[in-house]
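Bench notes, bay 3.
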Amino acid sequence: MAEADIGLIGLAVMGQNLVLNMNDHGFTVAVFNRTVSKVDDFMAGPAKGTHVIPTHDLKEFISKLKRPRRVMLMVRAGDAVDAFIDKLVPLLEKGDIIIDGGNSLFTDSTRRCKDLKEKGILFVGTGISGGEEGARHGPSIMPGGNPNAWPHVKEILQSIAAKADTGEPCCDWVGDEGAGHYVKMVHNGIEYGDMQIICEAYQLLHQGLSFTADELHDAFTKWNEGVLSSYLIEIASHVFSHLDEDGQPLVDKILDVAGQKGTGKWACINSLELGFPLTLISEAVYARCLSALKDQRVEASKVLKGPKNGMFTGDRAKFLDDLRDALYASKIVSYAQGFMLMREASKEYGWQINYGSVALMWREGCIIRSKFLGNIKDAFEKNPELDSLLLDDFFQDAVTKAQEGWRRVIINAVELGVPTPAFGTALAFYDGYRTARLPANLLQGLRDYFGAHTYERVDQPRGKFFHTNWTGTGGKVSATSYTV
């Protein structure tokens, strides 16, 4: 008997918690897992006493779903998604819906959306952020794909999503094809950047000012009460206060080698494909790569010397204020770059992303939720065509007020020998973005000199190209391509 409002395949922690979340909101969910014993374990454990419907093969699973059938996949991104889609399609009818809720690459979602459309199946690729806790009690959900599917999944997804302080669900339609997973990719890239600048602040305080774990906890707790109020700042303060079994700070015993699952790297690769400088997120990815060179770093630390005096001797309270400003300004740059990248992608792929809506989706439930996402939403509501958050009055004023402290922090970091790649590249981007004339004129002269790549002139219309015979022997033939 078809009685389930939606079916979910994949009962790992995220899948289980989403099922329980749906059940709490009055939806009947059928579940299936490739390892069938997990279905029984789930029903005997977390799902005991719920209205969840267990199934033990795909035919039974599909038979339990109301039409149009809605099937949500919570399986590992990549081949596993394609494998399940191949198994599901022969069992589905035209108008049925497949929802991929994993961390899929947006180009895979675009491909799946097009392929399934030809078969009459509606595809939704949705980013979900918030981890286990978010999945259980309200994540940020970023759906995209075939727009004809949205009316059939909207109620379920918006019901289980986190809610902003206005009561609005942190879930809205993002755009066609791979747009949902693209926005999730950018979210994860910004998450990389947020964590990196937080880690740089930690190292400056811990290494340069000898802050104890208790002092770090107090500093981050205070920051979380102001403009830096965010989930990541809050949980950082918790990490500093957590003690190991011997009563010592656990953070000091964690190996300094960072892992990554690939979404930050995808964002960097795509930024290169689009020709957009996603510098802070890229530095955050490279910082994780550098952390992986642990053995080499240990050997290098024995022979490569830094500043003689690696300890800060100035006003600690003033330094803390400066560091707060550096965090805030760098965070603004990171989000500005992320939204600028989404604008470039929207142009390139023909999407109509609502940037204010994206900011709302990130207000609650997700890992990068923070106070100033409300300011981002306001900026795009005021000017939907805003090229960059740095051009909005609120953020202009914020960076202007923060930049003196931001610059002092980077100067101090250099003098102390503490690496701050994300702080530094954020400032470099800001200074580059506000510079009307960059040295690329010389760069183009050099390119034309050695490769006849041509250049444009400031006293001629854009789009008119010139070549100079710099040596008198190069001739007048120029290259046939010019890439900005």
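Next record in the batch:
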Amino acid sequence: MKRRPLIISGICLLLLTTFAVTGAAQTAASAQQAVPVDLTKAASGSLPLQIVVLLTLLSFIPAILISMTCFTRLIVVFHFLRQALGTQEAPNNQILIGLALFLTLFVMSPALTRINSEALQPMMSGQISQTEAVTRALVPLRSYMLKQTREHDLALFIRLSDSPRPRTAAEVPTTALIPAYMISELKTAFQIGFVLFIPFLVIDMAVSSVLLSMGMMQLPPVIVSMPLKLLLFVMVDGWYLIVGSLVKSVL
């Protein structure tokens, strides 16, 4: 007896679902009879295809940003600078990433302008296809990466891929250029980081020697050296020098 209300409710729900599906099918059939289908427009599918391509490209933006721009060099150098100063989380990651992003936008603005005028705008106006737009967009990026990539790094990946030796820059495969560019950027960033560490390391060693000679072994040297490093960094206008040198190195 207790199950009877549940059975009745289930039957009513099944009937309502059946009526809803039948009504939707009848509505769809009448709509198909009333509105003729343009098979030519449906077959082209230009707008949906453009949306799919655009969403796919948007998903690759983080990878493109890290692997094909100067963002890697900037963020690694800023990380080394923070470690050299000994300030732990100041400036924090959000500030460093934001600064690196806007510096990347500033440095890559000529290439982005070319991509917009030669690839994006013609594709949006329907003058070229998506494939041709991607090919055109790679030209300024490849030109920038070839300028910053070391020859022996590029030769390494060409040799590992068993590709023939390219005679011109246009024959360099993009699949070999991108990793070669990335390890070149990492090497340059580590070199800059090493140079940044030297003056702050001298201060740490001097402070440790003075405290040890004074017998103050219980006092951590970082408590005394960090204010001195910050004072030195501010006096020489460190952010101006570092950002200026980084931008000049990638232009």
